[in-house]
Structures are given as structure tokens and as C-alpha cells.
Design goal:
A hairpin with a 2-residue loop joins strand 1 and strand 2. Helices cover 46% and strands 12% of the residues. The strands form 3 sheets. Strands 5-7-6 form a 3-stranded antiparallel beta sheet. The chain has a two-stranded antiparallel sheet with strand order 1-2. By secondary structure, it is α+β, with helices and mostly antiparallel strands. Helix 4 packs across helix 5.
Length: 224
Amino acid sequence: MSTHHFLVSTLAAPTMRSLLRPVLVSAVFFMLLTGIAYPLATTFIGTALFPEQAKGSLIQRDGQVVGSRQIGQYFSQPAYFHGRPSATVGVDPADPSQSIAQPYNAAASGAGNQGVLSSSLLDAVAERSKAYRLMNGLAEDAPVPVDAVTASASGLDPHISVANARLQAARIARMRDMPLAQVQVLIDRYTQARQWGVLGEPRVQVLELNLALDRVKSVQPAVR
């Protein structure tokens, strides 16, 4: 070994040892800070200031949790308001290697990722529009709210637009033998205003509205 290499290796060993301790201390410190202290602090603050939201914004009926205000549910019976289409998928029970459509699957939040030029999206919108008009007794060329025929970015949107809810109101009134005005009053009651008065659009919480319908005049349990 040359004198030069011997001197370099001799000097490098103390340098590495001097760096090892601060590196380990720094790693442990940030692990405790970001992995334990920060999550505990945010959980404590969130629970103290926003207890309902921190626990999941849960909705109860007769003492039983039936859902969350933040996650939609799939309703298909004509006596219930229908939510926004959902593009979420899940494991096929018949073939675990395959995926199938599972609307409002909270374990697989996501969108269809289809652009405006996608033929699959255009076909789906056309099919949904036809089904929506047929379900709600609308004319073949009647305008359809965009949220009635397209999925949200999360696939879990618990709201629909006010226009969407009002177009479904006549069907609900007919299926439940209720005055249309009574259904419209319930829609207004469960319409949420723009956030802070400026963000977003007025929207209707579907699950809460359907539960209110059941309290007024119940039908067979909804198919979800």
C-alpha cells in the first residue's frame, strides 16, 4: 500500500466514526417527531376541536352506524334517491385475479381516468343518460345533470346536485305515495350551502335524505 493510500484510510476511519453518532441521533429524533409525536398531536387536536369529523362523521339510525357523511352509498331501489355514479372496483369473488365494478368501494377510492374523447366514457354517459331519463319519466331529449351520468374523482361522493335531486323528486313521491311538495321540502332541508359561502355549489347529502324519507314513510330496506 502506498503512503498516500495509507494516510487517506487512516484519516477516513475517525471521520466516519464521528459522523455515525449524529446520523443515528438525527434518524431517531425525526422518527420520534414525525412517526409518533406529530400523529399523536394531530389526533389529539383533531379530536378536541372536531370530534365528529375525527371519528369519521358517522351517521346513526336507532343506535346503529349506517354510514358516513363523507362516503356515499349505492342505492338502486326506485323509492330512494340515487347517488352519483361510482367508478370504483373490487376483487371478483369468483376469480380473485380479476376486478369487477363495486360502486362506492371505500377501500379502492379512485376515478375512471377517462378523458373527454374516450369512447368508453361517451358510451357510458349515453347509457346512463338513457337510464336516468327512463327511471325518472323524462323526455328522451330532456337535459340530464352532469353529476347523474359521470363519476367523481374519488368514486365516493356522498352528494348530488340540487338539480339532480329535484329531477328525482317526482319518482320518489310516486313510489312512496307522498305529496311532491313534501319531498321537495326534505330536499331543501338536506341541501348544504357553498362552503364558507363561496366554494363549490349547493349539494344534497343522499344518505341523510334517504334516511329522512324512511322516517317519514318507510319502504323495504334499500339495496346497496
